[in-house]
Structure formats: C-alpha cells, structure tokens
C-alpha cells in the first residue's frame, strides 16, 4: 500500500507541475490536477491538505532536481580538466548540447513561474527557492574565484554577481524562447555566455573541444 501511495503522490505532483508550467499556478485549479492525475478529490486532499502544501512540495522536489543537475554537470566538467575556467565552459557546453536537441521551446523553470505569484505561497516555499538559487551562486562563484586565482581575468570580476548572471541567462533564455516560440534561443544565449567567459579568461575556442 505504501508503494501505491508513493506512486499516487508522485502522479499528483507530476500532473500539477505540467499544468503549472503550461498555464501558471493561480490558473491551475485543483480539479484540473485531479483530472490530469486520474484520481478522486478525496485522494488529492489525503496527500495534500491544501494547494499551498502541494506547491511547497513541488518547490522542494524541483530544488533537489536542480541541485543534482548542477552537481552532476559540474563534476563531469571537473573530471575532464583541472582548469577551473575551462570547467565552467564545459559545464555550459553540457547544457548547450542538450538545448540544441530541443525542437520546441523548453517549458522553463518552476521557480520562475512561482516567483511571479510569490504572494500566493508561504515563506517556507520562498525560502526553498531562494536557497536553491544561492546553491547555484555559491558553486559557480567559487569556480570563478578559482579561475581568477589561476589566470587573471581580462576585466575585473565580481564572482557572486557574475555567478548570478549565469542564472539570469538561463532564466531569461527560457522566457524569450517561449515568447518567440523559438527552441534555438536557449542554446544560442548559453553560447554567448560561454564565449564571454572564454574571452574573460583568455581561452581559445578549441580548448573546449580538446577537453570534451
């Protein structure tokens, strides 16, 4: 029974995330989630007392997934080269490779969807989103500082601010891609970011191919 309960719990969350990514949180009714998940109203409220509770669990799950992706791709880059600057380029290259395969715009980031309606959520949910973004900032800023220590950048660098710029490019590219209905935009914008970092640390374009 516990296993079936976990399966149902996940089905509700999956259905809710799909709907929210497509139409937003406030526009997603509980009845829509129930219909998409193929459950009864009683089953929904057994697993989630309120829609706000569901939103919190969605944020927690998304944060875990996001952190695993950050760690996995950064570790793969670290295994390929000892050069911190090149590690950053290879980190982005992995996302570029994925984005270049998309034929339709990526749905985007759940946190981006939530932040526009932040007043609808509890503080604990906002904290989950904030902490997740700070994990990205810290990991990338540490790598930028290591890169700057190894090779002086061609321009002054505020590591934390530039680390935030990485997140900004990702999130902004998702929005523009969906707005213009152009799946190519995410990969293109990540390539611009990668080129900026490459020039900042004086690396050749061929260095990425050699290290990959």
From TrEMBL:
InterPro entries: Homeodomain-like_sf, HTH_TetR, Tet_transcr_reg_TetR-rel_C_sf, TetR_C. Residues 29-48 bind DNA. The keyword Transcription applies. Pfam families: TetR_C_13 (PF16925), TetR_N (PF00440). Keywords: DNA-binding, Transcription, Transcription regulation. GO terms for molecular function: DNA binding. Residues 6-66 form the HTH tetR-type domain. PANTHER family: HTH-TYPE TRANSCRIPTIONAL REPRESSOR NEMR (PTHR47506:SF6), TRANSCRIPTIONAL REGULATORY PROTEIN (PTHR47506). This is HTH-type transcriptional regulator LmrA.
């Amino acid at each position: 029974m516990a296993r079936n309960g976990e399966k149902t719990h996940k089905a509700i969350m999956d259905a809710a995330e799909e709907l929210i990514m497509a139409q937003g949180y406030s526009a997603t009714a509980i009845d829509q989630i129930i219909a998409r998940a193929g459950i009864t109203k009683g089953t929904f409220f057994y697993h989630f007392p309120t829609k706000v509770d569901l939103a919190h669990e969605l944020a927690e799950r998304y944060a875990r997934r996001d952190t695993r992706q950050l760690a996995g791709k950064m570790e793969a880059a670290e295994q390929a080269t000892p050069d911190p600057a090149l590690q950053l380029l290879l980190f982005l290259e992995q996302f570029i490779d994925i984005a270049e395969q998309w034929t339709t715009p990526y749905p985007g980031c759940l946190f981006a969807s939530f932040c526009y309606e932040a007043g609808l959520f509890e503080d604990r949910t906002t904290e989950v989103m904030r902490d997740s973004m700070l994990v990205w900032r810290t990991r990338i800023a540490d790598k930028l500082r290591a890169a700057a220590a190894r090779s002086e950048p061609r321009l002054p660098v505020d590591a934390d601010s530039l680390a935030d710029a990485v997140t900004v490019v990702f999130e902004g590219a998702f929005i523009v891609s969906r707005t213009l209905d152009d799946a190519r935009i995410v990969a293109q914008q990540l390539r611009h970011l990668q080129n900026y970092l490459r020039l900042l640390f004086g690396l050749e374009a061929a260095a990425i191919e050699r290290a990959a």
